[in-house]
Design brief:
Blueprint lengths: L6 H9 L7 H10 L11 E5 L2 E5 L10 H5 L3 H11 L5 H11 L8 H8 L4 H10 L9 H12 L1 H19 L10 H17 L15
Helix pairs in contact: 2-4, 4-5, 5-7, 8-10
Length: about 210
């Protein structure tokens, strides 16, 4: 019957967003999440420490009640916040993003970086505030994000292009030059992280930060 959805299929999609070693924790998190009227959509693949994960572009589950969430472990709460950072509501995405920015888990990084390539300016600003170590040579944040970008050059290139596109379409009236746009500033911090990691210049897919084009 084509009109019926398979909740188990949704669970498989969400489980695939994390490394295999977290599968038991992910299942516990999924058990406290309300069902969704629509399936998660368009997963994107990245590599996390040698393992491919497929993270949904959007999910449509309502947020769980406070009680069940309170019984989760710290790791399980991070998993929940990662998943809801993919929520279709931008306010929900930002609220959960702000809870994972302090994490040093490699599997959290793609959830943060995907949001850097989206259109909500307040989210981009929240990432910059939440990752102050990106501007500090040798910091744990630089090592963490530099390692991820080095493993996922195509993902970072797409993120760069998305930042330029959203600036041009939605924010150019306020930030006349790309170099003044907060998304550009954040990309330059990520670029510094990967260049420190690999010890060489990294390919650029944006206008130079000080030009007006």
């Amino acid at each position: 019957m084509g009109g019926l959805r398979d909740p188990a299929g949704d669970a498989d999609v969400l489980t695939a967003a994390f490394p295999a070693g977290l599968i038991d924790d992910v299942r516990i998190v999924l058990a406290v999440m309300p069902g969704a009227g629509s399936p998660p959509i368009a997963p994107f693949e990245v590599e996390v420490e040698g393992e491919t994960v497929a993270i949904p572009t959007r999910l449509y589950n309502e947020e769980p009640e406070t009680g069940p969430r309170g019984r989760l472990t710290a790791t399980q709460r991070e998993i929940l916040h990662c998943l809801y950072s993919r929520h279709h509501d931008g306010l929900v995405r930002q609220r959960h993003l702000e809870r994972i920015l302090v994490s040093r888990e490699p599997w959290v990084v793609p959830f943060v970086m995907r949001l850097a390539g989206e259109y909500v300016l307040e989210i981009i600003e929240a990432i910059s505030r939440g990752l102050p170590g990106l501007s500090t040579p040798g910091s744990p944040e630089r090592r963490l994000y530099g390692e991820f970008i080095a493993r996922n050059p195509a993902f970072f290139a797409r993120t760069e292009r998305r930042v330029v596109s959203y600036w041009s379409c939605n924010h150019r009236w306020r930030y006349v030059t790309f170099g003044s746009y907060p998304g550009c500033v954040l990309l330059e911090a990520f670029r510094a992280a990967v260049e420190e990691r690999v010890g060489r210049a990294w390919p650029r897919h944006t206008p130079p930060p000080l030009t007006g084009t």
